[in-house]
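Input (structure):
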């Protein structure tokens, strides 16, 4: 399973490195979201600083939608999805590989967006350990849930519009918990942030387990 996961993740990341879709499209979109929020709230700098955590995670969530859609668009061309079914690869390995590739892209985007809120919003990263732990668990949950719902929508003609409708309500706990944890981290009140990591951890474990168990059936139905 892990060997197959590494193969799939490596393939997806090599394709992204060559196509530069994340660099040329997703990353500028994520930064543009932060810039637009900065323009909207700039008259009241205090509100902008207090809302930095929420705005950061909204930008990450929008970027995750684009990354997941891109991940499964790779399988829709030239019969690639049929080739995956016939490849003999472990479906759980395929799931983990695609989730790892999405998570790696989101992690890179979060570094960029973290620099963005420091530069644009004047935010001080008060408790970096809490911020990094939150980002790791939230990224794992978003990547796992996105991969599960991405394969659900992959076989439909309206997948581009259906995926956000399926995924956004599901990842609301991630947005809430990650925002609360980051608010505590940015305010240097770590004791209020660590409990939210339990929510993120449970979410990530549940969707990873669901993906490992059900991805084979979902791939056959896609």
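Output (sequence):
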């Amino acid at each position: 399973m892990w060997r197959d996961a590494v193969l799939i993740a490596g393939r997806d990341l090599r394709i992204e490195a060559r196509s530069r879709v994340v660099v040329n499209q997703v990353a500028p979109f994520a930064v543009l979201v932060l810039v637009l929020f900065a323009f909207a709230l700039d008259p009241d700098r205090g509100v902008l600083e207090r809302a930095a955590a929420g705005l950061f995670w909204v930008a990450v969530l929008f970027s995750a939608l684009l990354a997941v859609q891109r991940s499964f668009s790779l399988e829709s061309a030239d019969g690639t999805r049929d080739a995956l079914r016939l490849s003999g690869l472990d479906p759980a390995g395929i799931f983990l590989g695609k989730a790892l590739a999405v998570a790696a892209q989101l992690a890179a985007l979060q570094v960029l967006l973290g620099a963005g809120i420091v530069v644009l919003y004047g935010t001080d990263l008060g408790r970096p350990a809490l911020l990094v732990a939150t980002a790791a668990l939230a990224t794992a949950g978003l990547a796992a849930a996105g991969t599960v719902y991405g394969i659900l929508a992959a076989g439909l003609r309206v997948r581009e519009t259906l995926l956000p409708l399926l995924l956004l309500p599901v990842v609301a706990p991630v947005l809430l918990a990650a925002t609360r944890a980051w608010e505590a981290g940015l305010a240097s009140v770590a004791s209020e942030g660590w409990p939210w990591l339990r929510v993120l951890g449970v979410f990530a474990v549940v969707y990873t387990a669901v993906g490992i168990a059900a991805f084979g059936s979902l791939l056959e139905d896609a």
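Notes: The mean pLDDT is 85. The longest helix spans residues 91-121.
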